[in-house]
Q: What sequence folds into this?
């Protein structure tokens, strides 16, 4: 029974991986990831989205109000609030500005220390990211054994995208990790459904209560509930009940899992405001047709449904994108695969592909395909058709799911194959270490490394406002007393960090002399006066691979 559910027992434990060596290796890997993420969290100033989430988290904790950031459910921000509570931040309860102004007021205008507050807000996400590394290890170990588990964990902890976004007070990594956890629990439910199906329901609910982008996966996960019950009943029940009866069990189990998931969403809202006071904001768009009907019928809190309407409004909006030097309007279906090709270590790309192939070809591993590859493929397809070509963070689930899939390469017994596998792992590790501590603008060696990412991508792929503090240090050390002209894309307040600068776009070009400092996302999309200023300036420095310093002719 155990072998049928968990095929790793067939592969055994190699002699070199003794009982104490595996826990030691796991601790070393997770400790390395922790160092990388904490260092990144300490050195980076707030990214564009973080002040909104942190400000909302503080309002949740202090005012028990849901009025801010309705486009995202509360759970992720409640996790962030667990960290901000230790800072005891001050926020005027009479403040009535929008969510962007809220973040600025909290961080820079209320007497709080933004460095300390942001670090404390980021620490819970860092802790969760490390904890979910154990889920990757356990899932891959269940499939292929301890060696596969260790390989999957190594790919997880050295993923530049996971380090970059796992060290921020944002929602992408927690939502994706809750989804992965639910899939792992559903896989385990093939053996013990009564133990793991309720836990899977809670994990599905946690994903949906963190970010609404998890919703497209929910129907697939409920089908996996039916599949797990089907396979478990067929393999364990000696009486071999009929197909209709097993299917009925599966449907009933899926319904129970769905109820638990809905309960988690409701509880996340009630944890903020037990009275669930809510007034629909005037800027929530109307959603018509099938989408509107689906939103109206969902048995979820009204603020959640209004958040869905906001998300549908985003999807109906035309945004600007940037890919391989081209600035365009709208979305490109191939943007996400292209961005992944740039921002994923070459060793990881090779192992992802090889692992997926191993799952598809191996009879022992093929039962895991619906659990590992199908949800990831569905979510990838949804992201590829989305309106926002802003970054690989929208597919942050891929480094998690495909790390588990990559463990499949360890079942190949050819000596040359194993040498190639560990060579690819080493290549990925070295590539990740070389970018320390600039993980957000990472790109692999085929595309020139982090220093050239801004030539091909923009926004959260490279420049998310994270280097304002580093810019202040650079200007103070290398360019004291010089006139500064700044075009900064981010949520930070330059003057707080000691940067006294003017906007060159509001001044006649012939008066713009001295240093022209421009965020690389603004360089990518520059037009008109700013583009002319950049063309007539000489690049002399760069900060964090995300901000370029130009010298203007006198």
A:
């Amino acid at each position: 029974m155990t072998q049928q559910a968990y095929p790793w027992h067939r592969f055994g434990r190699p002699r070199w991986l003794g009982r104490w060596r595996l826990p030691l290796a796991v601790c070393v890997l997770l400790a390395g990831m922790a160092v990388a993420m904490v260092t990144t969290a300490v050195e980076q100033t707030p990214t564009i989205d973080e002040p909104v989430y942190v400000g909302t988290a503080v309002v949740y904790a202090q005012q028990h109000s849901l009025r801010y950031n309705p486009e995202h459910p509360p759970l992720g921000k409640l996790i962030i609030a667990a960290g901000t509570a230790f800072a005891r931040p001050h926020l005027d309860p009479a403040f009535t500005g929008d969510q962007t102004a809220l973040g600025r007021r909290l961080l820079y205008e209320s007497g709080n220390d933004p460095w300390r507050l942001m670090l404390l807000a980021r620490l819970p996400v860092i802790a969760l990211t490390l904890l979910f590394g154990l889920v990757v290890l356990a899932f891959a170990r269940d499939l292929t054994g301890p060696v596969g588990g260790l390989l999957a964990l190594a790919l997880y902890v050295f993923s530049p995208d996971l380090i970059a976004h796992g060290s921020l007070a944002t929602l992408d990594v927690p939502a994706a990790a809750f989804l992965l956890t639910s899939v792992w629990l559903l896989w385990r439910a093939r053996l013990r459904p009564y133990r793991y199906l309720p836990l899977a329901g809670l994990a599905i609910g946690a994903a949906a209560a963190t970010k609404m982008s998890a919703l497209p996966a929910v129907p697939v996960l409920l089908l996996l509930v039916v599949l797990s019950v089907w396979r478990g009943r067929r393999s364990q029940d000696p009486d071999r009940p009929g197909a209709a009866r097993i299917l009925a069990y599966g449907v009933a189990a899926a319904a129970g899992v769905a109820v638990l998931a809905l309960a988690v969403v409701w509880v996340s809202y009630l944890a903020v405001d037990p009275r669930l006071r809510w007034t629909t904001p005037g800027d929530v768009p109307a959603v018509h047709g099938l989408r509107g009907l689906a939103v109206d019928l969902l048995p979820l809190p009204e603020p959640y449904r209004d958040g869905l309407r906001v998300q549908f409004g985003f999807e109906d909006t035309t945004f600007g994108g940037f890919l391989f030097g081209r600035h365009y309007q709208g979305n490109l279906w191939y943007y996400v695969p292209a961005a992944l090709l740039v921002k994923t270590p070459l060793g990881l790309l090779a192992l992802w592909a090889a692992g997926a192939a191993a799952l598809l070809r191996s009879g022992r591993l093929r039962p895991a395909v619906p659990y590992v590859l199908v949800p990831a493929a569905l979510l990838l397809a949804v992201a590829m058709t989305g309106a926002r070509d802003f970054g690989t963070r929208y597919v942050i689930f891929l480094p998690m799911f495909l790390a588990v899939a990559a463990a499949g390469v360890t079942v190949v017994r050819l000596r040359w194959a194993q040498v190639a596998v560990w060579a690819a792992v080493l290549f990925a590790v070295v590539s990740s270490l070389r970018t320390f501590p600039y993980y957000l603008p990472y790109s692999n060696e085929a595309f020139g490394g982090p220093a050239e990412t801004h030539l091909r991508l923009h926004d959260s792929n490279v420049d998310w406002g994270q280097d304002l503090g580093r810019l202040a240090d650079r200007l103070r050390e290398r360019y004291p007393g010089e006139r500064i002209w700044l075009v900064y894309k981010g949520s930070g307040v330059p003057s707080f960090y000691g940067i006294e600068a003017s906007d060159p776009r509001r001044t006649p070009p012939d008066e713009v002399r001295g240093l022209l400092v421009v965020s690389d996302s603004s360089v990518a999309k520059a037009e008109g006066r700013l583009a002319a200023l950049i063309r007539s300036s000489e690049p002399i420095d760069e900060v964090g691979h995300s901000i370029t310093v130009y010298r203007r002719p006198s």
Summary: The longest strand covers residues 514-519.
